[in-house]
């Protein structure tokens, strides 16, 4: 009877050990499954979106039309020659002449490129020279685009750049009062009307004299 009981006890021990190893294997197996699942959450499908901007600078330039001629570039002094009507080639007391200067921003047809918008300020680039300069008077106004500079259009304008009766030797300063706006690519035109005359009170010693003056139309983007 003793031997069978010992065999029974050994069989029970083996079964308990076997159940223990099965539990350990199950735990290990579960751990491996959990480990694989945890690693899998670190992987993901990816995608990207990009955007790129290219910025190109424009160009600024102005062109002028003198006495109704074609628009072209007159970038250096003394620039184009102005012609007055009535002519001031042999001016005498009481004679006043008028001449027009039209300005606009450059286009592909005039300046080789379409200009960005900007402003223009008329000013005197050099002082009036010659013995007749001190005796001459002048004034400048803006008249409607497309109109001709005459005594009538000058008198009708209220946009004054240089006041009436200003001595030709008086410089035009670049200031806010003479700042005019130009649209891009020649979309707008500034029409300056310049009046120059010898007053009726001019003295005898103003005969057979000359005077020269250069006006600058300074353009910028601001």
In short:
The chain is α+β, with helices and mostly antiparallel strands and 222 residues long. The protein has helices spanning 2-40, 151-156; strands at 62-66, 96-105, 118-129, 137-142, 159-167, 179-182, 190-197, 212-220. Helix content is 20%, strand content 28%.
Protein described:
This protein has 222 residues and is α+β, with helices and mostly antiparallel strands. It has two helices and eight strands; from the N terminus they run αββββαββββ. The radius of gyration is 46 Å and the shape is rod-shaped.
Largest sheet strand order:
1-2-7-4-5
Query: Helix segment count?
Result: 2
Query: Which regions contain 5 or more consecutive residues with pLDDT less than 50?
Result: none
Q: Kindly, what is the distance between the CA atoms of the first and last residues, rounded to a whole number of angstroms?
A: 120 Å
Average pLDDT across residues?
A: 85
Order of helices and strands: HEEEEHEEEE
**Total individual domains:** 2
Write the layout of secondary structure elements.
Blueprint: H1 2-40, E1 62-66, E2 96-105, E3 118-129, E4 137-142, H2 151-156, E5 159-167, E6 179-182, E7 190-197, E8 212-220
Antiparallel strand pairs: 1-2, 2-7, 3-6, 3-8, 4-5, 4-7
């Amino acid at each position: 009877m003793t031997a069978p009981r010992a065999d029974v006890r050994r069989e029970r021990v083996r079964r308990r050990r076997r159940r223990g190893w099965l539990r350990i294997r199950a735990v290990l197996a579960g751990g491996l499954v959990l480990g694989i699942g945890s690693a899998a959450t670190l992987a993901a499908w990816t995608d990207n979106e990009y955007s790129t901007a290219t910025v190109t600078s424009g160009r600024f330039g102005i062109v002028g039309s003198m006495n109704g001629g074609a628009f072209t570039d007159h970038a250096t002094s003394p620039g184009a020659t102005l012609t007055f009507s009535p002519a001031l080639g042999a001016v005498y007391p009481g004679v006043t002449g008028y001449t027009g200067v039209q300005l606009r921003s450059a286009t592909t047809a005039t300046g080789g490129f379409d200009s960005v918008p900007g402003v223009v300020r008329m000013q005197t680039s050099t002082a009036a020279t010659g013995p007749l300069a001190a005796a001459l008077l002048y004034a400048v106004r803006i008249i409607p685009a497309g109109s001709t500079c005459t005594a009538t259009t000058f008198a009708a304008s209220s946009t004054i750049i240089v006041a009436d009766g200003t001595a030709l030797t008086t410089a035009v300063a670049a200031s806010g009062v003479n700042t005019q706006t130009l649209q891009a690519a020649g979309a707008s035109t500034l029409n300056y009307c310049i009046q120059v005359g010898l007053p009726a009170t001019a003295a005898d010693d103003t005969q057979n004299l000359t005077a020269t003056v250069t006006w600058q139309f300074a353009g910028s983007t601001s």
